[in-house]
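Q: How would the C-alpha coordinates look for this protein?
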Amino acid sequence: MKDLSLHLLDIAQNSMVVGSKNVTISLVVDTPADAITFAVIDDGRGMDADFLQRVADPFTTTRTTRKVGLGIPLLKQNAERTGGSMHIESTLGKGTRIEAVLRPSSIDCLPLGDIGGAVAMMICSNPHINVMFRYDNNGRVFEIDTHTLEEALDGIPLNDASVYMPITQLIQSGIAETDDPQGGQD
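A: Here is the predicted structure in C-alpha coordinate form.
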Protein backbone atom coordinates (compact mmCIF):
# COMPACT_ATOMS: atom_id res chain seq x y z
CA MET A 1 0.00 0.00 0.00
CA LYS A 2 1.49 3.30 -1.02
CA ASP A 3 -0.70 5.59 1.08
CA LEU A 4 -3.16 5.60 3.97
CA SER A 5 -6.21 6.10 1.75
CA LEU A 6 -5.59 2.66 0.24
CA HIS A 7 -5.38 1.11 3.72
CA LEU A 8 -8.58 2.91 4.63
CA LEU A 9 -10.32 1.66 1.48
CA ASP A 10 -9.18 -1.92 2.11
CA ILE A 11 -10.19 -2.03 5.78
CA ALA A 12 -13.51 -0.26 5.20
CA GLN A 13 -14.34 -2.55 2.27
CA ASN A 14 -13.83 -5.52 4.60
CA SER A 15 -16.39 -3.92 6.93
CA MET A 16 -18.86 -3.49 4.11
CA VAL A 17 -18.88 -7.13 3.01
CA VAL A 18 -19.64 -8.59 6.45
CA GLY A 19 -23.24 -7.50 6.75
CA SER A 20 -22.67 -4.05 8.22
CA LYS A 21 -25.46 -1.51 8.11
CA ASN A 22 -23.23 1.25 9.49
CA VAL A 23 -19.53 1.90 8.96
CA THR A 24 -17.78 4.79 10.69
CA ILE A 25 -14.45 6.00 9.38
CA SER A 26 -12.47 8.34 11.59
CA LEU A 27 -9.19 10.04 10.75
CA VAL A 28 -7.61 12.21 13.46
CA VAL A 29 -4.45 14.27 13.00
CA ASP A 30 -2.95 15.30 16.34
CA THR A 31 0.22 17.27 15.62
CA PRO A 32 1.26 17.88 19.26
CA ALA A 33 0.99 14.13 19.95
CA ASP A 34 2.76 13.28 16.67
CA ALA A 35 -0.11 10.99 15.75
CA ILE A 36 -2.39 10.16 12.87
CA THR A 37 -5.09 7.84 14.13
CA PHE A 38 -7.49 6.16 11.84
CA ALA A 39 -10.31 3.89 12.84
CA VAL A 40 -12.91 1.87 11.01
CA ILE A 41 -15.87 0.77 13.12
CA ASP A 42 -18.64 -1.46 11.82
CA ASP A 43 -21.73 -3.23 13.10
CA GLY A 44 -21.12 -6.34 10.99
CA ARG A 45 -20.78 -9.95 12.02
CA GLY A 46 -17.63 -9.45 14.11
CA MET A 47 -14.99 -12.05 14.89
CA ASP A 48 -14.78 -14.76 17.50
CA ALA A 49 -11.86 -14.71 19.96
CA ASP A 50 -9.90 -17.39 18.08
CA PHE A 51 -10.06 -15.60 14.72
CA LEU A 52 -9.34 -12.24 16.39
CA GLN A 53 -6.10 -13.69 17.81
CA ARG A 54 -4.98 -14.74 14.30
CA VAL A 55 -6.32 -11.89 12.16
CA ALA A 56 -2.96 -10.07 11.87
CA ASP A 57 -1.38 -13.21 10.36
CA PRO A 58 -1.26 -12.88 6.55
CA PHE A 59 -2.28 -16.54 6.19
CA THR A 60 -5.53 -15.93 8.04
CA THR A 61 -8.42 -14.84 5.85
CA THR A 62 -12.12 -15.46 5.39
CA ARG A 63 -11.80 -15.08 1.63
CA THR A 64 -12.40 -18.13 -0.49
CA THR A 65 -10.73 -16.70 -3.59
CA ARG A 66 -7.23 -16.72 -2.09
CA LYS A 67 -5.39 -18.09 0.91
CA VAL A 68 -3.82 -14.87 2.18
CA GLY A 69 -5.22 -11.65 3.61
CA LEU A 70 -2.70 -8.82 3.58
CA GLY A 71 -4.77 -5.75 4.50
CA ILE A 72 -4.63 -5.97 8.28
CA PRO A 73 -1.05 -7.36 8.47
CA LEU A 74 0.24 -4.59 6.17
CA LEU A 75 -1.58 -1.90 8.15
CA LYS A 76 -0.10 -3.26 11.38
CA GLN A 77 3.37 -3.37 9.85
CA ASN A 78 3.12 0.17 8.48
CA ALA A 79 1.85 1.54 11.80
CA GLU A 80 4.58 -0.19 13.81
CA ARG A 81 7.31 0.92 11.39
CA THR A 82 6.48 4.51 12.33
CA GLY A 83 6.58 3.76 16.05
CA GLY A 84 2.80 3.51 16.18
CA SER A 85 0.44 0.63 16.76
CA MET A 86 -2.69 -1.15 15.62
CA HIS A 87 -5.50 -2.45 17.82
CA ILE A 88 -8.57 -4.52 16.98
CA GLU A 89 -11.66 -5.05 19.10
CA SER A 90 -14.42 -7.33 17.90
CA THR A 91 -17.49 -9.05 19.26
CA LEU A 92 -19.11 -11.85 17.32
CA GLY A 93 -22.50 -10.70 16.04
CA LYS A 94 -21.91 -7.07 17.03
CA GLY A 95 -19.07 -5.69 14.94
CA THR A 96 -15.44 -4.70 14.81
CA ARG A 97 -13.24 -1.68 15.51
CA ILE A 98 -9.82 -1.45 13.89
CA GLU A 99 -7.64 1.46 14.97
CA ALA A 100 -4.16 2.30 13.74
CA VAL A 101 -1.87 5.02 15.10
CA LEU A 102 0.96 6.24 12.91
CA ARG A 103 3.70 8.74 13.76
CA PRO A 104 3.83 11.36 10.97
CA SER A 105 7.32 12.50 12.02
CA SER A 106 8.67 9.07 11.04
CA ILE A 107 10.31 8.78 7.65
CA ASP A 108 8.31 5.56 7.25
CA CYS A 109 4.92 7.24 7.62
CA LEU A 110 2.87 6.89 4.47
CA PRO A 111 1.19 9.98 2.98
CA LEU A 112 -2.57 10.35 3.46
CA GLY A 113 -3.29 9.99 -0.26
CA ASP A 114 -6.72 10.63 -1.77
CA ILE A 115 -8.86 10.26 1.34
CA GLY A 116 -11.75 12.14 -0.30
CA GLY A 117 -11.79 9.84 -3.32
CA ALA A 118 -11.56 6.72 -1.16
CA VAL A 119 -14.45 7.79 1.09
CA ALA A 120 -16.56 8.88 -1.90
CA MET A 121 -15.95 5.50 -3.54
CA MET A 122 -17.10 3.68 -0.41
CA ILE A 123 -20.23 5.83 -0.16
CA CYS A 124 -21.16 5.64 -3.84
CA SER A 125 -20.47 1.94 -4.29
CA ASN A 126 -22.33 0.89 -1.13
CA PRO A 127 -25.51 3.01 -1.06
CA HIS A 128 -27.28 0.48 1.20
CA ILE A 129 -24.72 1.07 3.98
CA ASN A 130 -24.63 4.23 6.09
CA VAL A 131 -21.04 5.42 5.85
CA MET A 132 -20.08 8.08 8.37
CA PHE A 133 -16.77 9.90 7.83
CA ARG A 134 -15.12 12.15 10.41
CA TYR A 135 -11.88 14.02 9.78
CA ASP A 136 -10.32 15.87 12.72
CA ASN A 137 -7.19 17.93 12.22
CA ASN A 138 -6.06 19.26 15.60
CA GLY A 139 -9.62 19.94 16.73
CA ARG A 140 -10.94 21.28 13.41
CA VAL A 141 -13.56 18.79 12.24
CA PHE A 142 -15.28 17.85 8.99
CA GLU A 143 -18.05 15.24 9.05
CA ILE A 144 -20.28 13.75 6.40
CA ASP A 145 -22.52 10.69 6.17
CA THR A 146 -24.61 8.81 3.67
CA HIS A 147 -27.94 10.07 5.06
CA THR A 148 -26.90 13.73 4.76
CA LEU A 149 -25.78 13.18 1.17
CA GLU A 150 -29.01 11.36 0.28
CA GLU A 151 -31.03 14.31 1.56
CA ALA A 152 -28.91 16.79 -0.40
CA LEU A 153 -29.22 14.72 -3.59
CA ASP A 154 -33.02 14.80 -3.30
CA GLY A 155 -33.75 11.45 -4.92
CA ILE A 156 -30.65 10.98 -7.08
CA PRO A 157 -29.18 7.63 -6.04
CA LEU A 158 -25.72 7.61 -4.48
CA ASN A 159 -24.58 5.02 -7.00
CA ASP A 160 -25.55 7.26 -9.95
CA ALA A 161 -22.33 7.92 -11.86
CA SER A 162 -23.03 11.67 -11.95
CA VAL A 163 -22.64 12.09 -8.18
CA TYR A 164 -19.24 10.48 -7.58
CA MET A 165 -17.13 13.51 -8.58
CA PRO A 166 -19.26 16.10 -6.71
CA ILE A 167 -19.16 13.95 -3.56
CA THR A 168 -15.40 13.49 -3.95
CA GLN A 169 -14.94 17.24 -4.36
CA LEU A 170 -17.17 17.97 -1.36
CA ILE A 171 -15.12 15.66 0.86
CA GLN A 172 -11.80 16.96 -0.48
CA SER A 173 -12.97 20.53 0.10
CA GLY A 174 -14.06 19.71 3.67
CA ILE A 175 -10.68 18.14 4.37
CA ALA A 176 -8.83 21.10 2.84
CA GLU A 177 -10.81 23.58 4.96
CA THR A 178 -10.11 21.50 8.04
CA ASP A 179 -6.41 21.41 7.18
CA ASP A 180 -6.34 25.22 6.90
CA PRO A 181 -5.39 26.54 10.37
CA GLN A 182 -7.34 29.73 9.66
CA GLY A 183 -10.49 27.82 8.73
CA GLY A 184 -10.55 29.07 5.15
CA GLN A 185 -10.44 32.73 6.20
CA ASP A 186 -7.75 35.08 4.95
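Residues 63-69 have pLDDT under 50 and may be disordered.

Residues 164-179 form the longest helix (16 residues).

Upvote if useful.
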